[in-house]
Specification:
By secondary structure, this protein is an alpha+beta fold. It folds into two domains: 5-80; 90-214, Lipocalin (Beta Barrel), CATH 2.40.128. Helix content is 27%, strand content 32%. The chain has helices spanning 8-18, 32-40, 51-80, 136-143, and strands at 90-99, 102-103, 109-114, 118-124, 146-155, 158-165, 175-182, 186-192, 196-197, 203-204, 207-214. The strands form two sheets. Strands 1-3-4-5-6-7-8-11 form an eight-stranded antiparallel barrel. Helix 1 packs antiparallel against helix 3. The two termini are 33 Å apart. The model is unreliable at 17-30 (pLDDT under 50).
């Protein structure tokens, strides 16, 4: 039901002046049927001696009703313009990662679980069974997994994760904000890296978008 807000008193006064009771979705507006009946047969509402005086009052009352309807419509439009809240609860499988507009082939295989308040993710190298194991780095890549855990909140299109477990120790205890966009089966999770200096000494900040598909 639409909320007529501050226009309630103006509508009530207009109804009192018109001398009729009408009901619509706001329970306070003049229905189109009542307006039609009044325009065609004003004498059915008012005695003959009062038609001229009441017509002036009716004009003022109808103006109040028009203003009140406009206020209610504006209020409804303003409420509907708020962005819908992301629905991230569930089990998600990462499909691809894009960093600074380019596909990231090193992202690996990942699952992310979102309960009502908590999140957890695990990640491993793609095709790690094919690594040659010739160096220590090969062994680390082949036998190591990554993961993280914490709590989260959602406000509109913003997800804030409070990190409690993470591969990078300095991130533990941080609040990590990201923007989100979801439909029934897809989730686009966009986040920004900390500012750092590249090999040329310039300050940079990467933009990463993680695309997930719902599994449950």
């Amino acid at each position: 039901m639409r909320d007529c807000g501050g226009s309630h008193r103006r509508i009530k006064e207009a109804k009192r002046l018109l001398g009729i009771y009408v009901v619509t979705s706001c329970n306070n507006s003049l229905s189109s049927l009542d307006l039609k009946r009044y325009r065609e047969h004003p004498s059915h509402l008012f005695p003959p001696g009062q038609e001229i005086a009441m017509s002036r009052i009716s004009l003022a009352a109808l103006t109040l009703l028009t203003i009140s309807g406009a206020v209610a419509a504006t209020h409804g439009n303003r409420s509907s313009s708020a962005p819908p809240e992301c629905r991230v609860q569930g089990v998600w499988r990462i499909e691809r990662v894009v960093t600074n507009g380019k596909a990231d082939s090193t992202s690996g295989t990942e699952r992310k679980i979102m309960t009502r308040r908590h999140f957890m993710w695990v990640n491993q190298e793609n095709r790690r069974d094919t690594l040659p194991l010739k160096t220590y780095r090969d062994s680390v890549r082949a036998f190591s997994n990554a993961g993280g855990y914490g709590t989260y909140t959602v406000s509109g299109s913003t997800v804030t994760e409070h990190i409690e477990l993470f591969p990078i120790p300095s991130w533990i205890g941080r609040d990590f904000k990201a923007t989100c966009r979801t439909d029934s089966n897809h989730w686009a999770h966009t986040w920004y890296s900390d500012v750092y200096k590249d090999s040329t000494g310039r300050s940079r900040r990467d933009t990463t978008v993680e695309y997930y598909r719902r599994e449950e």
